[in-house]
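Figure 6 in text form: structure in, sequence out.
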């Protein structure tokens, strides 16, 4: 698949070949949905609460006397039997109650498959160098207009703060534009926006980076933050004492 490459003026200046088989070959809707639901669930704050009887603010004065009225015996109005009272079994939910897990290799396959779905629909705009000359919002809006972007767009920026500075400052005030780091692209962010705008260098780094490890290499020879640091060989137990004794 050849994806058009544009410059900052919206002019097509080349094409970028992308191997569809490296992105899954075909769109796996079930896998993408599972990953999307997982990302969505893990974003929950997890602060669901309901008040028990002891947490309701109000008077604890007895309604009426205990005997002689012919009515049922009642104390404070905070009982769960009455409107405005506490809950008999108050909910205590935490962030971990909503979290879902998913193997790393499945997440990476879903992310790459979501990118394939965007490519098939021609919703990915690859820029040769995503580095605006100035941090003006008007210029960045004109740049998006030259690309034909008329709906929500996700702009994936470089991890280098200096390279992404102008684009970040120019796009942060646009209503329908969201920003993220290119190395943190996932299917949740991509599918929540109609268009994806990304630099060619950043896209190549994402395709060839840790997200490309969807097999056993993800554990045996990981890339990125999960890479194993080279460790110096540990001395054998007792070797130092032998040398000291010698």
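Output sequence:
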């Amino acid at each position: 698949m050849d994806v058009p490459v544009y410059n900052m003026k919206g002019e097509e200046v080349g094409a970028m070949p992308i191997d569809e088989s490296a992105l899954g070959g075909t769109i796996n809707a079930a896998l993408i949905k599972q990953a999307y639901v997982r990302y969505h669930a893990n974003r929950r704050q997890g602060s669901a609460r309901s008040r028990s009887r002891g947490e309701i603010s109000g008077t604890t004065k007895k309604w009426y006397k205990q005997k002689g009225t012919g009515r049922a015996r009642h104390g404070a109005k905070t009982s769960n039997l009455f409107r405005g009272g506490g809950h008999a079994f108050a909910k205590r939910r935490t962030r971990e109650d909503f979290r879902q897990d998913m193997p790393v290799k499945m997440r990476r396959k879903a992310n790459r498959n979501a990118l394939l779905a965007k490519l098939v629909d021609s919703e990915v705009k690859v820029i040769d160098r995503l580095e605006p000359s100035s941090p003006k919002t008007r210029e960045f809006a004109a740049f998006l207009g030259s690309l034909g972007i008329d709906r929500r767009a996700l702009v994936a920026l470089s991890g280098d703060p200096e390279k992404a500075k102008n684009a970040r400052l120019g796009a942060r005030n646009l209503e329908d534009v969201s920003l993220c780091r290119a190395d943190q692209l996932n299917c949740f962010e991509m599918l929540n926006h109609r268009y994806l705008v990304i630099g060619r260098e950043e896209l190549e780094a994402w395709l060839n980076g840790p997200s490309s490890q969807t097999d056993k290499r993800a554990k045996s020879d990981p890339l990125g933050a999960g890479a194993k640091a080279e460790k110096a060989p540990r001395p054998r137990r007792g070797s130092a004492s032998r040398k000291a004794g010698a």
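Caption detail: The chain has a mean pLDDT of 88.
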